[in-house]
Amino acid sequence: MVSRSRFSRPRRHLLRSALLAALAIPALAGAAVAAPRTDLVLGMPVEPPGLDPTSAAPTVIGQVVWQNVFEGLTRVDRDGKVQPQLARSWTVSPDGLTYTFALQAGVKFHNGEAFDANTAKFALDAIRAPGSVNPQKALYAVIADVKAPDSGTLVLTLSKPSGNLLFWLGLPAAVMVEPKSRDGLKSNPVGTGPFRFASWRKGDRVELTRSPDHWDAARKVHLDKVTFRFIGDPQAAAAALRAGDVDAYPLLPAPELYGAFQKDKAFTAVPGLTEMKVVAGMNNAAKPFSDKRVRQALMMAVDRKLLIEGAYSGYGAAIGSHYTPNDPGYKDLTGVYPYDPQKAKALLAEAGYGKGLTFTFKSPQMAYATRTAEILQAMFAEVGVTMTIAPTEFPAKWVQEVMRDRSFDMTVIAHAEPLDIAIYANDPYYFGYKNPAFNTVVATAAEATDEATRLKLYGEAQGILAEDVPALFLFVLPKLSVWKAKLTGFWKNEPVPSNDLTEVRWTE
Amino acid sequence: MRALVLRPRRGFRLDDATLLVGAVLTALLVGVALLSLVWTPEDPARMRILQKLRGPLVSGLLGTDHLGRDLASMLMRGAFNSLTIAFAAVGLGAVLGTLAGVAAAAGPRFDAVLMRVCDALFALPPILSAIMLGALLGPGAPTAIIAIGVFMIPVFARVTRGAAMQIWAREYIMAARMAGKGTVRITLEHVLPNIAGQIIVQVTIQLAMAILTEAGLSFLGLGLPPPAPTWGRMLAESQTYLTQAPHLALAPGLAIAAAVLGLNLLGDGLAARLDPRRRQAS
Amino acid sequence: MLAIRNLSIAFPGPDGPVRVVDGVSLEVARGESLGIVGESGSGKSMLSLATIGLLPRSARTSGEIRLEGRNILGMSERALCGVRGRRIGMIFQEPMTALNPAMTAGQQIAEGIRLHRAAGRAEARAEALRLLDRVRIPDPARRIDSYPHEMSGGQRQRVGIAIALALKPDLLIADEPTTALDVTVQKEILDILDELVADLGLSLILISHDLGVIARSTDRTLVMCRGRAVEQGTTEAVLRQPTAAYTRDLIAALPRRARAGLGAAAPLAAGDAR
Amino acid sequence: MLRHLARRAAGFAVTFLLISVLVFGMMEIVPGDPASAMLGTSATPETLAALRAQMGLDAPAVIRYLRWLGGLLSGDLGVSTTYGVPVGALILERLAVTLPLTGLAVLLAVGIALPLGVTAASRPGGVADGVATLYAQAGIAVPNFWIGLLLIMTVALGLGWLPAGGFPGWGDGPGPALRALLLPALALAIPQSAVLTRVTRASVVEVMNEDFVRTARAKGASVSRALWRHAVPNALVPVITMLGLQISFLIGGAVLVENVFTLPGMGRLAWQALAQRDLIVIQNVVMVFATVVIVVNLGVDLLYTVVDPRLRRRA
């Protein structure tokens, strides 16, 4: 038994200082010598219900795997432009009906299978097959036939010309997959991208590791390991960022927390824009919204600036039609029906609702949706319109009641698909909006191979919607991204819902 | 399950204090709730978005919320909404639960069936089942009431059954039976009055739980739909403003705490007053 | 051995303190057995609790209780723990509730031993076995490991006695030990008590409302009524020539044959002046 | 003894069956199906029909119920429609978070409630009693997800002692995993311990008046020994009853705390599965939850016999 006296006062003091010194050394050494980190922890508000973008719609799937694990024939870059990828180059026949692609050589899937024209044919045929559950199947219906004359060339013949086909082929829904791993992609994604799928602890995180033999030497990747952590609660997300557990959070769901990060030196926080157009869809097929004047009146009852301030703390941009400022050919049509309660009341009276109008609003349970609903409710009350809010469980119940059964008066949702103005030509669709003139404009625009005419036509389409108001065009959701100051390479805007990590790296 | 009772310390004094404080707090609560029907400083639904997130006394007594609505008015109207949901839910739970419990104690045949149903109800995860009910019946006060009330039935059933069984075993019940009274009359005249104390304790405790469950439901987007404010939803929505505007979370939180405290103290005071056995104990 | 002088015990009541014991004095010599008799509520139990310092916290006491010269009332809690069990053993009235339902008889007896003596578990258990035999419990080897609810009232009271005897105390206080038992078992318990007093030379205070029990096995008797000691003397004297009216009433309440058996005084003719 | 257990087992089987019918029925009539949940805003009737067929949803309900029940009994719980992985593995993964979390929460709750309740009962009206009553009243009144938030703000962010959420998994040893579970467990434990304190206090005060406690004192046992060795063991029955009720609530009701601390537990799995209408997962989660509750009830009964020998012969 050690007697107390052995640790006399001076000896104990010596012992304590030695201990302190021992602790200090590693800390000092750490800072000076370490090379920039090669691992990244990314925070995401929602966990994807699977990792196969070709078999499910939620954009969060593409935000994990697109351009990281999977690649397409073409890709959309950070400015929304189409760039070559697995298709090195392509030629389009004068009548715009035949596309011949020259494919990259020596490309392998993560499971060792080779990528060639036959695999590309398999992937495109899978999307267009009758039993296919590809969420964007309609976009590729224009492809009549796919042929692979030799392993390096792919020939597509279209039923009618399409100006946007190359853009559609760059979307997450059209990434290249191969037959062997096709059925297991949902929980074990196999692609040709710079990162390989490592593990997925459901409800918590997905881990990707750098693929050593990636074909595209030009786009060298700077990260060895990427972890996507799913943090739903905004307050927990902010806490994880501040505690350093998470390095970047590309889509912070709570705008009210964003201001603090903008002021914080340790973080870069520059708001961009997404493709998510928040529109209050109305059931144009039934009273009272079958009457255009009622729709126009309600549009004038909405003060978009105040709505954005209330619903998203002022971040995001007002829109006058189903088009975002990011997209080429955008026209600012917020002036068509500006905020004018008096005129709105007059128009309502003219439409026969002078004594008042009542309808129900099916509000999905996302934060932006419930807040928008409450603000619209107050704004409509100012013009004598009573709106009862029916919170509706999202996605299942809302999709069934609004999209399939179309039993709703008004609702609100953010449409995330890029360049999707054509949905107002869909029949059947939840708007119940039938305007042949609009349909022809959009159809001709789709077939216009020449850029200038296509953008002019899209401009016309925006004008028709702005004037006809099949839905109240409110605002575009911002991309409130936050990352540690020592990180660069993230996209500012989100022309395609994604987190392309190929250019992301630590500066020191 | 033994009733949760605060043992009286020195005979009367503590019971009276608990009862008094509990009664005052609850009366205050009910008073504010009723007053809100007639008058509130501002219209709880009126939004002044440009004056959003103002601190207490800067704009209105308790400041404004994230949409510029007056917090004090919302709290008052919220008191009414939260209380009505809580009282209705507990009413549902207590009545059905007590019926089941008493029936189970009276008739062994009922006992097996009812207890199996209670076990089944008990084994369902509360929050999950509330969401299912919400999706099934659609949002609104009735759904919240049913979602909260249904899960109280097993609790009341268990408490009443336990207490009623003790009473059935007493001699004076044999005497009543000798006098030819039927099971129903015995239950009404002898069993219920004797277990009233324990039921009342459970009622006040479950009232407190109901208010908290409504907060949980609102957190999941299920409680009473907008624009009717409830304490639960105010608490849920204040969550992301905790650092910026803590008063948003503090106001409903303290209101819930006061209500729960008042109800619990009232329950304990009543239980001590009603149950002679407890009052005399040294 | 034990001397109580002018002991009063009062409890705070709704309107002022209520005196439960009022100026009682008594003495018990070594080896002597004193009976205390009185109706329930006459303060006899409070008296016994005071002697081992177990009165409820709200009780206010005055006077002295001297055990071999040391005043119990002034003692610290730690000192009292030393006295209880080692110097004074206590047997209670209700065998049904006096034993811990979650501990075996052996454990409860052994605990008494190991509280005061640094005895090992095995040694204490052997001692407990011997004590159980001493109080003549049938089949002690099995009874040592059975729980209170597995034993009859009489057996439990025997365990109670064994517990009180564990450390060979100088004074044994038995507070209505036989009241809750049926007559046949009463006799066995009282025989055991007599035997113990005789063999171990213990002093005994036997408290009961039943004169028969007091008459049978006590040297001297104290009669209590509403907290006051109304009469004190040898048991024969108290029975044959009761001086206090209350004692006579007590005797009168005995059935005639029992009274004769005890040689107690004949009751006065009806209509006597009280 | 065996007959008794057999009867109880039969009772559980009936409850089990009742729950399976209840939850399957509920899921059948709840609006919205997995296909529409999966396809979101770009759901066209054609793709919806294809997905429904792929998920085997077009078989009649009774067949699907029997197929599921058969699978349940033979241990094959089926494959999750959202994750495409066997449900069994998914649930095990989540139990590896929820069970330790609940266990830790119960330990903390008992760790707080027992000492507080017992000391309060030892001196009714004393300081400890005041503290215990105040804590009990306040603890019940504050929702657990709110306490969770405050803990994150103060301990995780303010002091930086513990992680602010997330779960590192048991891969790299129990250390980091337990650190991640400490704050959420505390958030769950505080309201539960408040209720438990009240029950403990009431029960111990009741037992302190029993005669055998006085016998113990008469043997020379000190106040604390009489309290802890004699009174408390006999006061545990109602405490255990309340604990049994609370454990079942903790397992199913922790979804809010799991959400605030982003823990991949059973609560969030159930919540996500319901949002995605992943029928197979929901049905199995509810069955697993029911099993755990039944096992807990069995445990509580066994614990009764350990604590109170009088119940031993009957059980």
From TrEMBL, chain A:
<dbReference type="GO" id="GO:0015833">
    <property type="term" value="P:peptide transport"/>
</dbReference>
<feature type="domain" description="Solute-binding protein family 5">
    <location>
        <begin position="81"/>
        <end position="414"/>
    </location>
</feature>
<dbReference type="GO" id="GO:0030288">
    <property type="term" value="C:outer membrane-bounded periplasmic space"/>
</dbReference>
<feature type="signal peptide">
    <location>
        <begin position="1"/>
        <end position="34"/>
    </location>
</feature>
<keyword id="KW-0732">Signal</keyword>
<dbReference type="InterPro" id="IPR006311">
    <property type="entry name" value="TAT_signal"/>
</dbReference>
<dbReference type="GO" id="GO:0043190">
    <property type="term" value="C:ATP-binding cassette (ABC) transporter complex"/>
</dbReference>
<dbReference type="InterPro" id="IPR000914">
    <property type="entry name" value="SBP_5_dom"/>
</dbReference>
<dbReference type="InterPro" id="IPR039424">
    <property type="entry name" value="SBP_5"/>
</dbReference>
<dbReference type="InterPro" id="IPR030678">
    <property type="entry name" value="Peptide/Ni-bd"/>
</dbReference>
<dbReference type="Pfam" id="PF00496">
    <property type="entry name" value="SBP_bac_5"/>
</dbReference>
<comment type="similarity">
    <text>Belongs to the bacterial solute-binding protein 5 family.</text>
</comment>
<dbReference type="GO" id="GO:1904680">
    <property type="term" value="F:peptide transmembrane transporter activity"/>
</dbReference>
<protein>
    <submittedName>
        <fullName>ABC transporter substrate-binding protein</fullName>
    </submittedName>
</protein>
Automatic annotation (TrEMBL), chain B:
<keyword id="KW-0813">Transport</keyword>
<dbReference type="Pfam" id="PF00528">
    <property type="entry name" value="BPD_transp_1"/>
</dbReference>
<feature type="transmembrane region" description="Helical">
    <location>
        <begin position="248"/>
        <end position="272"/>
    </location>
</feature>
<dbReference type="InterPro" id="IPR035906">
    <property type="entry name" value="MetI-like_sf"/>
</dbReference>
<dbReference type="InterPro" id="IPR050366">
    <property type="entry name" value="BP-dependent_transpt_permease"/>
</dbReference>
<feature type="domain" description="ABC transmembrane type-1">
    <location>
        <begin position="79"/>
        <end position="267"/>
    </location>
</feature>
<keyword id="KW-1003">Cell membrane</keyword>
<protein>
    <submittedName>
        <fullName>Peptide ABC transporter permease</fullName>
    </submittedName>
</protein>
<dbReference type="GO" id="GO:0005886">
    <property type="term" value="C:plasma membrane"/>
</dbReference>
<feature type="transmembrane region" description="Helical">
    <location>
        <begin position="143"/>
        <end position="160"/>
    </location>
</feature>
<feature type="transmembrane region" description="Helical">
    <location>
        <begin position="207"/>
        <end position="228"/>
    </location>
</feature>
<keyword id="KW-1133">Transmembrane helix</keyword>
<feature type="transmembrane region" description="Helical">
    <location>
        <begin position="117"/>
        <end position="137"/>
    </location>
</feature>
<comment type="similarity">
    <text>Belongs to the binding-protein-dependent transport system permease family.</text>
</comment>
<dbReference type="InterPro" id="IPR000515">
    <property type="entry name" value="MetI-like"/>
</dbReference>
From TrEMBL, chain D:
<dbReference type="Pfam" id="PF00528">
    <property type="entry name" value="BPD_transp_1"/>
</dbReference>
<feature type="transmembrane region" description="Helical">
    <location>
        <begin position="281"/>
        <end position="304"/>
    </location>
</feature>
<keyword id="KW-0813">Transport</keyword>
<protein>
    <submittedName>
        <fullName>Peptide ABC transporter</fullName>
    </submittedName>
</protein>
<feature type="transmembrane region" description="Helical">
    <location>
        <begin position="181"/>
        <end position="199"/>
    </location>
</feature>
<comment type="similarity">
    <text>Belongs to the binding-protein-dependent transport system permease family.</text>
</comment>
<feature type="domain" description="ABC transmembrane type-1">
    <location>
        <begin position="95"/>
        <end position="304"/>
    </location>
</feature>
<feature type="transmembrane region" description="Helical">
    <location>
        <begin position="12"/>
        <end position="30"/>
    </location>
</feature>
<dbReference type="InterPro" id="IPR035906">
    <property type="entry name" value="MetI-like_sf"/>
</dbReference>
<feature type="transmembrane region" description="Helical">
    <location>
        <begin position="235"/>
        <end position="261"/>
    </location>
</feature>
<feature type="transmembrane region" description="Helical">
    <location>
        <begin position="134"/>
        <end position="161"/>
    </location>
</feature>
<keyword id="KW-0472">Membrane</keyword>
<dbReference type="GO" id="GO:0071916">
    <property type="term" value="F:dipeptide transmembrane transporter activity"/>
</dbReference>
<keyword id="KW-1003">Cell membrane</keyword>
<dbReference type="Pfam" id="PF19300">
    <property type="entry name" value="BPD_transp_1_N"/>
</dbReference>
